[in-house]
Structures are given as structure tokens and as C-alpha cells.
From TrEMBL:
Main location: membrane
Domain Ig-like: 38-127, 132-225, 235-322, 533-626
Membrane topology qualifier: Single-pass membrane protein
Record's keyword annotation contains Glycoprotein: yes
UniProt subcellular location: Membrane
InterPro entries: CD80_C2-set (IPR013162), Ig-like_dom (IPR007110), Ig-like_dom_sf (IPR036179), Ig-like_fold (IPR013783), Ig_sub (IPR003599), Ig_V-set (IPR013106), Nectin/Nectin-like (IPR051427)
Protein name listed in UniProt: Ig-like domain-containing protein
Stored Gene3D superfamilies: Immunoglobulins (2.60.40.10)
Pfam families (alphabetical): C2-set_2, V-set
Sequence intervals crossing the membrane: 833-859
Keywords of this entry: Cell adhesion, Disulfide bond, Glycoprotein, Membrane, Repeat, Signal, Transmembrane, Transmembrane helix
A GO CC annotation given for this chain: adherens junction
Segment forming the signal sequence: 1-18
Length: 917
């Protein structure tokens, strides 16, 4: 009796719940909307009740008299919308997208759902705002000699009115330097423009930019716009003087210089601070120059002042320069050309001693001062200079040997305009005493111009030494002698030219005779033996008209004469074309070079030898190099999945020397695809790449072949296999029960029960197939997406009855797809206990009924009853897809089976009770 009462109570609660869901009550969820002018806005509205909706539409209230304008909706199953509004998705989801083209779009909008019993209207007020366009402009003006700048910042077309502020160096501008003015303009389209002008004197502002900050509801953060402004820079000022010659006279050019300043400085130039001068102004880049030209003698020792004025100066800045006064001072120094120069300076009339017989004596007249130039004249004993003594520049030169007539009092006069100086000195002659002085003997050997140069010298002898050469029998050479004298001493130099080297040992002797020697002295030197020639061979390759050639160079560096070079291949003398040349170097050596040019394929793998013959060699020498074998190109193919494209890429790479463009994909018949070829070079090695783009479905499970055709007609091929993929199904790993179709025995969805008011509940899924990866998305029946965590649906918030419904999960990999449908039901703990009790009672009653029927059937024996199985119907509101790849299709329901099932349904009573089992 207790179980029967509990069953009746649960049944009554369930019926009440059903009546509540099917009654006239319902609710509409809608949000308040703010739209931006010129952009799209979403008008979101959805019906969450359980009544069957017949029509739904958006309309706008025109005026206060309840006149409306229909915008979009679905009536009699047909959607409609205006040109600037999208069509709604369904009768219960009236979300549309509207283009806001004017401020007049602001107003009240009504979303209305209509069922057979009742209408469900709800209104929302749309507020239209306009994002302003920020514009900056800089102007400059000069008032009463002061330079001002005005920076205008305009926020054009904003709604509501934006706010404008200024930043200078990251801080608001100070009131002492900056002035701000604001103006507003209202436009006919409902927007307005706010303008702010920042004004300041340029010389009081050191920042090169100012920033305008615009704040507006349409801007997530204030918009900061900076603009460059002009600033003043303090210049560097200086003064300098330079001397120039014009028309044979000297002038001072005094320049006032201002550099690095902005704007240009005002420059005044005066003599002694009170005399204005004619000046020349010049500006070059960031340098400003004002110059004046002054006669050097007139302004000697006077001051010139430059006065600079600039907005950055608190007061005028002056620079003064004093022009120098000219002076001259004189002295004398004796320079002996044969012995160098002495270090004695003579002043006044002190004696200057010169050695008798000395040649090329130079007496330097030393003059110091600051004059630009001077004139000089000299005399001896109040008369002209003696013969052989010349005034060259500021020096007296004795051309021949010094004699007693060159002695006396010399007087020289220096002058520059009014500046004069006089120099007097007394020249005395020191008598010459001749004593034998032995020479310094030295022998040296050098190689020049292909000859050995033997130099023998006997230097600084008194008197001069006598020199001769002693050569071996049968050897001859060219010789000459030079004699020089200096300060009474004499030097002799002998030069002997012989061949650069000798094949045998050779010694030459230099013989020196002098009164200081008791016997002649001999100096011998041995000539070097001829060096062996240096032989070098190297090779290089080049391509011409598609053929590879090898160039081999053989070089021989030797003494004269040039070496002879011959070529042959292997052990046989072949007729090979070659080019030879000979160069003679400055040191007398000879370089012989020979180059052979052969076709690589003709002599591939063979040895190419150059044979060298030279008199210094006992026998000819050989150098050999091997011609490399030509290698065939290397071919490879691969398959690439592109990240940002639905197409796959087949790549064919070919690498080798001389590779051409003879690459091609061998594709199945009637196949069209996009191919592209690219080549790059590393020296003579060419890398060619041929790609082919195709959809996976076009070649899935097939082989793609790349072929390279050689010049002689042969072909090399490489093949890559395109895998075949499939997705068989999407499985639900949670405990579910099948929900079957009324027209067949196959399940069309999985029924899954989740617990009410519990967070973070997950529905685990698994994709069956051989695809390497896939995209998995789940959506509700209204088209909204469900949050995913890997391969699981996640309900983060507490579940309510609103989360009940049909969910569809779809796995895809290119054209392969599979879908699973899940009917989610939300149950409470009380309902689960009640349903468990009902199931227990129902199961016990069914077992008892079966026992009774079995006993009665046994008693009757001949009577039997036939029962038809009836299928339960589920209250599904949407058509679902079967899981599996697109190749699998369900059989269609025929008209006969449809009538049969209709007849069965007409006599069936189905009680649909939610259960977790």
C-alpha cells in the first residue's frame, strides 16, 4: 500500500511539471544595447519557454501613438528582413545583425513571439553613439617680434560630446606658458565636433612635441595623439680671423660664427665696439657666418667685436678678437750639404768659419716673426755678392768649392712694409790640409731585371781610391764607376752586371787601390746557383650551352728563360687545345702559364698531365690532375599538410649540377591542379622544386609520381603515397541509454542524465578512426556552441532545466566527418529516488504478470496470443544526423512503412518518463 501511494505521488508531480512546461507561461531574455554609428549591432532575443511559437518578429516604435515599423522576423514559416538587417535563425532565436547608418536609429525596439494562446513582447532601447575622428593642426605666427605656435586638436563627429585634454612632457600644460581655448560645433546628423586650441610662445617651450588626449565612451582607452612643434635651440657663438691676399695686398677676414642655433641669431660686428663695418652674411646648413674684410696693416693691433642676440639669450653675448702686430727677428745658420747641417746659430757679427774647398755650402738666414711674407737683399763688404754666391729664397748658397775670396762681412736686409730687420755675419775661411784617409769598403749583391747587380764602394777617402773588377776566365759582364766628393773626401762606386744566377759556382772580385793601403785590397762575392722552377697546377669547372667544361691551369715560375709546357691525357699524347703566355717580372724572374680547356664528359675520370721542361731541370717534370666524374641529379618527393589552407602540397625536389626545368608530376587522367616550380643556385649546383596543390579528397589513397627527364631522353621517377583516412564514429564515454526513432530500431541519439545544480560536469567523447588529428565542436539545438575541454563538453556553471535539450557533436578532418547526438536531461536527487522506486515496482509487477501469463498459457495449451511490439516515441524538436563518414547513408523510410508506423502510433499510448538509467 505504501509503494502504491508513493507511485501516485510521483505521477502527480510529473504531470504537474509537464503542464507547467506546456502552459501559456513563458519568458523572453533580452539585453540593453549600445550601438556605434557606422558599425553593426546585434539585436539578441530568444524564447526560452515551452509553448509552440507560431510567428516572431522585430519591430520599432515610430512615435508615442504606438505606431510600429516591422523590421525582421518569421511569419508563416517564411523569414523577412529589411536591407540593413539580417534574417533571424529560427522562431525561438530572433537574433539579428543591424547596420547603424544614422543617429535616427536610436529608439525603442520590440521583440515579440506569438503562440496560439498568447503573445510575448519585450522592448529594449537602442542608444546610438558615434566614435570621433581626431585631427591635429599646427599653426605659427609672429606678434610684436615674438613667435607663437597654436596646436589645434579636433574630435570630429562624436556622440556624446568627447572630452579633450593636453599633455606636454607627460604633464598638463602650465597656465603661465600655455593658453587653452575650446569650441563646439553641432552637426545636422546628430553628432558634434569639439575643438581645443593650445597656444604658447615658442621661446618659452623646450619640448619638441605636445599630445592631445581624447576621451569618449567609444574609445576603450583615451586616445593620445602627438604632434611635432617647433622649438628654439641656444647657439654656440665664436669669432676667428684669417689672412688672405687680394690684389697683392694682405687682408684680415674676421668672421662671427653662430652654429647649432634655432632660429638664426642676430649678429652685429663692430671695430673697438663703436664702429659699424660692411659685412658679408652667409648661412650654410646649421652654421651662420657674418664676415668683414680689413686691410692687414691699417687694423694692426686693433680689436674687433661680434655681438650676438638670440631669443634663448637672457642678454646679448659678445666675442672680441685682437688683430696681431707684425714683427721680424733674424739669425744665421751654416748648412754643409755634404756633411749635413750643423747646430750652431750665429747672431750679430760673430765669425762664421767655412772649410776651404767645401762644395755646395748653404748659409741659412733664420727669420722669425708673424708677417705673412718678407723681402730679403744681401751684400758683402758694402758691395754686391761675389761670383758663385747666390741668394736662393732665404739662404746664401756657394755653388763651387769655397775659396778665400768668399771671406768677408755679409749684411742682409729683411722688410715687410713698415717692419724691417737687419742681419750681419762675418765669414772666415779655414785652410784645407790634405792627409790620406783610407776608404770604407763595402760589397753588396742584388738581383734586378733578371740580372745580378754587384755593387762595390770605397767611400770617404782622401784622395779618391782606384777600383777594378777581377772575373773568372770565360765570364764577361757590364761595369761602370761613379765618383762623388763631399767636404774634401771622395767616394767611388763600381757596379758590375752579371746573369741573375749560374748553373755552377762563380766568384767575382772587387780590387781597391789607395795610398793608405800597403797592398791592394780585394773583396769577393759568390753568385747564387739557379733556383729550381716552382710548378703549380689547379683546375676549375664552368658550364656553357648546357655542357660542363674543365679548365686546368699549369704555371711555372723560374729564372730566364721561360719554361716549356706540354699537355697529354693518361699515358698517350693527345691533341688538346691550350693557351700559353709568359710574363717577365721586375726581379728578372719569368712566369710561364698554360691553360687547357676540355669537355668534362669526354674525359670524365681520366688524368690530365702537364709536362715542364727548363734548363735548370735535369729531366722534365710532370704534374697531374684528375677530371671529376659528372654526377646525376638527386630526386626526392614528399607530402606536406599546409597549416593555413585546406589543400595538401606534394613537393618534388631535384638537386644537381646543370639541372634544368624538366620536372613534371605524373597525375591520374583528367586531373587538374595548381603546380609551381622554383629554382635557386649554389655555385654550379641547381636546386629545383616543383609543387602540386590538391584537395585531399581528389587523390586520397592514390600514388603521385614526379618525373625528371634527362637531356639524353632517360627519365627518373619518385612516387609518394597519399594516405586514406576515415572517421567511423564519435562515441560518448559517459553512461547513456539509446533514444530510438519511431520508424526504425536504430538509435538516433544518446540519452544522458546530468545532476541538477552541480558545477563542472563533463561529457566525455572519443573519435573512432585513423585520422592524425581532428576538429571537434558541439552545439545546442539553437545553434549556440558549447565550451570544450579537449574531447569533453564542459558545463562550468550549475545545471538547470534550461540546459536540457538535444546537443550535436561533430568531428571533422578535411572532408571526413562524423556526428553524435546527445539528449541531455537534468534530474534532481528526489526525482532519481522516486524513479528508482517506480522502476523497482514496475519490474516486480512485470515479473509477476509474466508468471501469471505463462501459467495460464500452459493451461490453455492450444490458445496463444500474439502481441505486437510498440516503440516509444521521444519528444524531439529537431532533425538529427547519423554518425559516421559521409560515405555511409541510412535507408530512406518508404511510404508503406510510414503508413504502418502511423497506424501503430494511432493506437499507442506512450508515457515518457525521464530517467538516469
Amino acid at each position: 500500500m505504501g509503494c502504491s501511494g508513493l507511485f501516485i505521488l510521483c505521477f502527480v508531480l510529473k504531470v504537474a511539471h509537464c503542464l507547467e512546461g506546456l502552459g501559456g507561461g513563458g519568458s523572453v531574455e533580452i539585453t540593453h544595447i549600445t550601438a556605434i554609428l557606422g558599425e553593426d549591432v546585434d539585436l539578441s532575443c530568444s524564447y526560452l519557454g515551452e509553448s509552440e511559437i507560431q510567428s516572431a518578429e522585430w519591430k520599432r516604435r515610430i512615435n508615442s501613438e504606438n505606431k510600429f515599423q516591422r523590421l525582421a522576423g518569421i511569419v508563416n514559416g517564411k523569414p523577412f528582413s529589411r536591407s540593413y538587417i539580417s534574417q533571424p535563425d529560427s522562431l525561438t532565436n530572433l537574433t539579428v545583425k543591424m547596420k547603424v547608418t544614422s543617429v535616427e536609429a536610436e529608439g525603442e525596439y520590440i521583440c515579440e513571439f506569438e503562440s496560439l494562446e498568447e503573445q510575448y513582447p519585450h522592448s529594449v532601447y537602442l542608444t546610438v553613439v558615434a566614435r570621433p575622428d581626431v585631427q591635429m593642426l599646427v599653426n605659427a605666427e609672429t606678434i610684436n617680434g615674438s613667435h607663437y605656435q597654436s596646436v589645434s586638436c579636433s574630435a570630429v563627429g562624436g556622440r556624446p560630446v568627447p572630452q579633450i585634454s593636453w599633455l606636454v612632457a607627460g604633464r598638463p600644460p602650465s597656465n603661465e606658458t600655455f593658453a587653452v581655448g575650446v569650441s563646439e560645433t553641432v552637426h545636422s546628423n546628430g553628432t558634434s565636433t569639439l575643438s581645443s586650441i593650445l597656444r604658447f610662445p615658442t621661446h618659452l617651450q623646450d619640448e619638441d612635441s605636445v599630445a592631445c588626449v581624447v576621451q569618449h565612451p567609444t574609445l576603450p582607452v583615451p586616445k593620445l595623439t602627438a604632434v611635432r612643434v617647433e622649438t628654439y635651440t641656444r647657439p654656440n657663438v665664436s669669432i676667428k680671423a684669417e689672412m688672405v691676399q687680394q690684389g697683392g695686398s694682405e687682408f684680415w677676414v674676421v668672421s662671427c660664427i653662430s652654429s647649432g642655433g634655432r632660429p638664426d641669431a642676430d649678429i652685429a660686428l663692430a671695430l673697438n665696439g663703436d664702429e659699424e663695418l660692411q659685412r658679408e652674411d652667409k648661412t650654410d646648413s646649421d652654421m651662420q657666418t657674418s664676415s668683414v674684410v680689413l686691410p692687414a696693416t691699417v687694423y694692426e693691433g686693433r680689436n674687433v667685436t661680434c655681438v650676438f642676440d638670440h631669443p634663448k639669450f637672457t642678454h646679448q653675448v659678445s666675442r672680441v678678437i685682437t688683430l696681431p702686430s707684425f714683427y721680424l727677428e733674424s739669425g744665421v745658420q751654416l748648412l754643409k750639404s755634404e756633411l749635413g747641417s750643423n747646430s750652431d746659430d750665429f747672431q750679430g757679427t760673430e765669425p762664421l768659419e767655412v772649410q776651404e774647398g767645401q762644395r755646395d755650402t748653404v748659409i741659412s738666414l733664420q727669420v722669425t716673426g708673424n708677417v705673412p711674407h718678407y723681402n730679403v737683399t744681401c751684400k758683402k763688404d758694402d758691395g754686391p755678392l761675389p761670383d758663385g754666391v747666390e741668394l736662393v729664397g732665404s739662404s746664401l748658397t756657394v755653388r763651387g768649392p769655397v775659396e778665400h775670396r768668399h771671406a768677408g762681412l755679409y749684411e742682409c736686409f729683411f722688410s715687410y712694409r713698415h717692419v724691417k730687420a737687419t742681419l750681419k755675419f762675418n765669414v772666415t775661411i779655414k785652410p784645407q790640409v790634405i792627409q790620406p784617409v783610407p776608404p770604407t769598403v763595402r760589397v753588396d749583391l742584388q738581383t734586378e731585371g733578371g740580372h745580378s747587380v754587384i755593387e762595390c764602394s770605397a767611400a770617404d777617402a782622401v784622395p779618391a781610391a782606384h777600383m777594378s773588377w777581377l772575373l773568372p776566365e770565360g765570364v764577361s759582364g757590364v761595369s761602370w764607376f761613379n765618383f762623388t766628393s763631399h767636404n774634401g773626401s771622395h767616394s767611388v762606386r763600381g757596379v758590375l752586371l752579371l746573369p741573375a744566377c749560374s748553373p755552377w759556382e762563380l766568384t767575382a772580385e772587387c780590387v781597391i787601390n789607395h795610398p793608405a793601403f800597403e797592398e791592394p785590397e780585394n773583396r769577393s762575392i759568390a753568385l747564387p746557383l739557379c733556383a729550381r722552377p716552382k710548378i703549380a697546377i689547379n683546375s676549375s669547372t664552368e658550364w656553357k650551352d648546357g655542357e660542363k667544361f674543365t679548365k686546368v691551369d699549369c704555371s711555372v715560375d723560374s729564372v730566364a728563360p721561360a719554361a716549356t709546357i706540354r699537355w697529354h691525357v693518361g699515358n698517350v699524347d693527345n691533341s688538346i687545345s691550350y693557351l700559353s703566355q709568359t710574363d717577365v717580372r721586375a726581379d728578372g724572374s719569368v712566369s710561364a702559364r698554360s691553360s687547357a680547356h676540355v669537355l668534362s664528359s669526354l674525359y670524365s675520370g681520366q688524368n690530365l698531365t702537364c709536362t715542364v721542361e727548363h734548363p735548370s731541370l735535369e729531366a722534365p717534370e710532370e704534374r697531374t690532375i684528375q677530371i671529376l666524374v659528372h654526377e646525376a641529379p638527386l630526386l626526392s618527393v614528399s607530402l606536406v599538410r599546409q597549416q593555413d589552407s585546406p589543400l595538401w602540397l606534394a613537393v618534388c625536389d631535384c638537386r644537381g649540377e646543370g639541372v634544368g626545368a624538366d620536372l613534371a608530376w605524373v597525375l591520374p587522367e583528367n586531373t587538374k591542379g595548381q603546380t609551381s616550380q622554383h629554382s635557386e643556385y649554389e655555385g654550379r649546383v641547381t636546386k629545383a622544386r616543383l609543387t602540386y596543390q590538391f584537395p585531399l579528397a581528389l587523390h586520397e589513397g592514390q600514388d603521385l609520381t614526379c618525373a625528371y627527364r634527362f637531356e639524353h631522353g632517360a627519365t627518373e621517377k619518385k612516387t609518394v603515397h597519399v594516405p586514406r583516412y576515415h572517421i567511423s564514429s564519435v562515441r560518448v564515454l559517459n553512461r547513456t541509454s539509446p533514444l530510438q526513432s519511431r520508424y526504425g530500431g536504430e538509435p538516433i541519439a544518446h540519452r544522458l542524465a546530468l545532476q541538477e545544480r552541480l558545477r563542472n560536469q563533463r561529457v566525455l567523447l572519443r573519435v573512432e578512426g585513423n585520422v592524425p588529428e581532428y576538429d571537434l565542436i558541439c552545439k545546442r539545438s539553437d545553434g549556440s556552441f558549447v565550451q570544450m575541454d579537449g574531447v569533453a563538453m564542459v558545463f562550468r556553471s550549475e545545471l538547470t532545466e534550461r540546459d536540457e535539450g538535444l546537443y550535436s557533436c561533430r568531428a571533422s578532418f578535411y572532408h571526413h566527418t562524423a556526428t553524435v547526438n546527445i539528449q541531455v536531461e537534468v534530474t534532481s536527487e528526489d526525482e532519481q529516488l522516486a524513479l528508482a522506486a517506480i522502476i523497482c515496482i514496475s519490474s516486480a509487477s512485470a515479473i509477476l504478470l509474466i508468471l501469471i501469463v505463462t501459467l495460464w498459457a500452459c493451461c490453455k495449451g492450444n490458445s496463444s496470443s500474439q502481441y505486437k511490439k510498440k516503440e516509444s516515441l521521444s519528444a524531439l524538436t529537431s532533425l538529427m544526423q547519423e554518425p559516421g563518414s559521409p560515405e555511409v547513408k541510412k535507408p530512406a523510410v518508404t511510404e508503406n512503412t510510414s503508413k504502418e508506423y502511423t497506424q501503430l502510433v494511432s493506437y499507442s499510448i506512450v508515457l515518457d518518463i525521464k530517467s538516469t538509467v
